[in-house]
């Protein structure tokens, strides 16, 4: 390989494929390599036989589960906010033409042992059984303030500077109780712990507005969308995009050893005795294990079922967030459920994941509150994986390493990582001020 590339991307996980697409659109010369013979890396979608091999080590799943190839089971299942950053990236890059999306039926929150639909607007708050009558009135006032808030119009600020006022202070002004704060912070604003309460309120208000705007796009039961045939479609769509702009893809390349010069800067990648030269390398943590540090562990259960999750209005696709405080934990728990309605399982079959940041050495016991919500299951698997973050200085070695996928079942943190890496690599910010109505062609 005599050519020199601007960037070599190692691994075809979703983050790496999005970056590869963005860099190719920028007309950078990109070579994309993966040691596997399939797309998706850690974020791949598996059929039933592949799933069995990976999680049970046996070849033959039971016949009653249906045809193996009708399953597309995401290893890192996440829904997209309909008005969120990932959808903007898809439209910005025109990847929407390779994909079809369908709205997700329900968005729920766990409160005092039961699950409730997440109220997103002042009108929904009035109907919600989550709160008593007086609390509903207080929440309605708070939601009206958030819906009307416009950063550029001081008249909507009611005398508060949300870059200074903390979320706790803003909530105190409306006198909301702890249960209400719990679902607002974790199920609407999608914060992963309670540290946001002591930070400026502007971020939380923006997150709540995003949730409400995403709800409004589909007039459905949730703010989320999900691709038909699962997330495995996304890496391949970005690979196609990269190829259109001259990017080169090579799968099944063993080892992929990153080479450095005497100063510790990247000079290329060697595989099968050949070295491709480059200025920068992008990869997931598994390709440069000596340049990352472990930051946690994700525990998850995965179930195949023959019914929707009980108490979700028979939703064929749903997210349930179990806030940490409700469980006496340090981190939230997430339930993701999808089914044949998104073409990820045979007719009549549902796939559910229960995921959380592991806090003990007994993930089965930790995941019990989420598993208890599922009802009867046909099969259940347990799995854990370590989470890593880069420990290198990319300005010194030109290695740009993504963070491992977290336990959340929505994409907001994933895309933030990708966009931060893009800015580090190019010095630019992706312009995502796109007209979201342009995406309607790809929506069902």
Automatic annotation (TrEMBL):
GO biological process: protein transport; small GTPase-mediated signal transduction; vesicle-mediated transport
Keyword Chloroplast among record annotations: no
InterPro entries hit by this protein: FAD/NAD-bd_sf (IPR036188), GDP_dissociation_inhibitor (IPR018203), RabGDI (IPR000806)
KW Membrane (keyword) present: no
Pfam families: GDI
Keyword terms, alphabetized: GTPase activation
One annotated GO molecular function: Rab GDP-dissociation inhibitor activity
One GO cellular component term noted in the UniProt record for this chain: apoplast
SUPFAM superfamilies, A to Z: FAD-linked reductases, C-terminal domain, FAD/NAD(P)-binding domain
Family the UniProt entry places it in: Belongs to the Rab GDI family.
Function: Regulates the GDP/GTP exchange reaction of most RAB proteins by inhibiting the dissociation of GDP from them, and the subsequent binding of GTP.
Protein's name according to its UniProt entry: Guanosine nucleotide diphosphate dissociation inhibitor
Organism the protein comes from: Cucurbita moschata (Winter crookneck squash)
């Amino acid at each position: 390989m005599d050519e020199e590339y601007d960037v070599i991307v190692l691994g075809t996980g979703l983050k790496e494929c999005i970056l590869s697409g963005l860099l190719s659109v920028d007309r950078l010369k990109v070579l994309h390599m993966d040691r596997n013979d399939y797309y998706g890396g850690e974020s791949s979608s598996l059929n039933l036989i592949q799933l069995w091999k990976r999680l049970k080590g046996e070849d033959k799943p039971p016949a009653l589960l249906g045809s193996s190839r009708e399953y597309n089971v995401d290893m890192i299942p996440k829904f997209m906010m309909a008005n969120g950053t990932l959808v903007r990236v898809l439209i910005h890059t025109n990847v929407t033409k390779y994909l079809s999306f369908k709205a997700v039926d329900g968005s729920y929150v766990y409160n005092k042992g039961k699950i409730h639909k997440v109220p997103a607007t002042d009108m929904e708050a009035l109907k919600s059984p989550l709160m008593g009558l007086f609390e509903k009135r207080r929440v309605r006032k708070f939601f009206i303030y958030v819906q009307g808030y416009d950063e550029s119009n001081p008249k909507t600020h009611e005398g508060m500077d949300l870059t200074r006022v903390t979320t706790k202070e803003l909530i105190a002004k409306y006198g909301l109780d702890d249960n209400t704060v719990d679902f607002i912070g974790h199920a609407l604003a999608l914060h992963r712990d309670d540290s946001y309460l002591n930070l400026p309120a502007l971020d939380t208000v923006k997150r709540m507005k995003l949730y409400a705007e995403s709800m409004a796009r589909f007039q459905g039961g949730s703010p989320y969308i999900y691709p038909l045939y699962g997330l495995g479609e996304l890496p391949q769509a970005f690979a196609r995009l990269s190829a259109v702009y001259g990017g080169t893809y090579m799968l099944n390349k063993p080892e992929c050893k990153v080479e450095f010069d005497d100063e510790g800067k990247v000079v290329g990648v060697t595989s099968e005795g050949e070295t491709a030269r480059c200025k920068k390398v992008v990869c997931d943590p598994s390709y440069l294990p000596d340049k990352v540090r472990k930051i946690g562990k994700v525990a998850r259960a995965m179930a195949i079922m023959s019914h929707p999750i009980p108490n979700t209005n028979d939703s064929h696709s749903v997210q349930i967030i179990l806030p940490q405080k409700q469980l006496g934990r340090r981190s939230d728990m997430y339930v993701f459920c999808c089914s044949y309605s998104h073409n990820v399982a045979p007719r009549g079959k549902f796939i559910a994941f229960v995921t959380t940041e592991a806090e003990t050495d007994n993930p089965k016991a930790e995941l019990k509150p989420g598993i208890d919500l599922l009802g009867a299951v046909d099969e259940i698997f347990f799995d854990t994986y370590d989470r890593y973050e880069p420990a290198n200085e990319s300005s010194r070695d030109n290695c740009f390493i993504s963070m491992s996928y977290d336990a959340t079942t929505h994409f907001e943190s994933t895309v933030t990582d990708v966009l931060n890496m893009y800015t580090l690599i190019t010095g630019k910010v992706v312009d995502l001020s796109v007209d979201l109505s342009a995406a309607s062609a790809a929506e069902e």
